[in-house]
Amino acid sequence: MHCRALQAPGSVKPRLTGRKMRVRRVEANNSSHDTNTPSLTSTPADVLHSRRRVTLLTGLAATIPLLTLSQNDITFAAEVATPAAAPQVQLDAITDRVYLEFGLCPEGVRNDRRLGDKSILCSDPEALGRVVIGLYGNAAPGTVANFKTLITTQALNGTCLSKIIPGQWLVAGTQGPKRSGLLDPPAEITRNPDVLSSVAFKLDHRKPGTVSLNLSENEDDNSIKFSGSYRPLNFLIATGPAPAQSLDGENIVFGVTLEGLDVISSISRVPTFQPPKGNGKAFNDLAKFIGDERASKTSAKWGKPLKAVLITGSGVL
Asked: Which of 134, 235, 223, 233 is nearest to 186 (CA)?
């Protein structure tokens, strides 16, 4: 029989289970990776190296001053970090000013022409007055550029209004032979990108005296429109007093009358060719619907002035 030696009560070491032994090993490994705190197995050289690192870092921290920011510095930093918003473009801002002078002939076509005289309009029209137009270069830059070209080349001088719709609008700039009072476009006219821009159609015809590129009520002949060199130049001026809402989104508004609304009002009172009273207009609409070309030719004359209204002068202000 073998007897075990007796040990003091406090000298017995508890036996560790497998899980506790693994925890102890992990803790020992973690403590060995701490570079600031020397482990139990560190050599005297490791301890000295760790103390030197602590001393060096403490000295550097003492020599670096604290960075203080004022309220102005913080505001400036916020403005730099925040991207600047794009400036808002005012579409109805007046960028240019032009004028048109109008005159009135006693008849639409001269009856006293002699052989070889190609002019069908009077040579000494009655002055009606001047109309000053402000142009919207931000909303319709291409349209404004072409309209200014018509002004500077004086291509509009000697042309007449092709249609007057009382209480609605006046139409000018219809293309055709100059001797007939129509517009002969100058070579400087360029292709207009506004007709493909949605921004150019945003402004409306709310105000009397609104000037727009006439695309919906265009008076140009189809033989001219189908030409490869065709550029739309036909324009209209709203007479008021009611807004011309039927033109919104159809025409390109590129200006407004600044002076001379009284001149426009007097022009709108010039007598025009009117549809027949009674059921005449209804019959004409029916004939147009079934494809009768005579009906279209007849309705095209409605609104044409019985007296020629001429643009006698123009210029840039």
From this structure: 233
Taking 50 as the pLDDT cut, the residues of the chain under it are 1-8, 10-12, 16, 19-20, 23, 26, 31-40, 60
What local confidence, expressed as pLDDT, does residue 64 receive? 52
pLDDT of 123:
78
Helix or strand run (H / E) with residue 24: helix 18-33
The H or E element spanning position 238 is strand 235-238
Is the separation of the CB atoms in 109 and 310 below 8 Å? no
Structure tokens at 70: 């004022």
Q: State how far the alpha carbon of 24 is from the alpha carbons of 19, 34, 48, 273, in Å.
A: 9, 16, 27, 110
Q: Is 100 helix (H, G, I), strand (E, B) or coil?
A: strand
Quick check: 235 and 211 in contact, CB under 8 A? Answer: yes
Is the separation of the CB atoms in 144 and 307 below 8 Å? no
Contacts of 27 (CB under 8 A, 6+ apart): none
Instruction: Please list, in sequence order, all residues whose beta carbon lies within 8 angstroms of the beta carbon of residue 286, skipping any fewer than 6 positions away.
Output: none
Q: CA angle, 166 as apex, 280 and 249 as ends, to 5°?
A: 100
At 23 the pLDDT is 46
CB atoms within 10 A of CB 21: 10
State how far the Cα of 248 lies from the Cα of 169, in Å rounded to an integer: 13
What amino acid is encoded at 16 in this protein? L
Which of 257, 258, 259, 253 has the alpha carbon at shortest distance from 138?
253
Q: Which tokens hold the place of 102?
A: 């109008």
Structure token pair of residue 62: 């003492």
Amino acid at 9: P
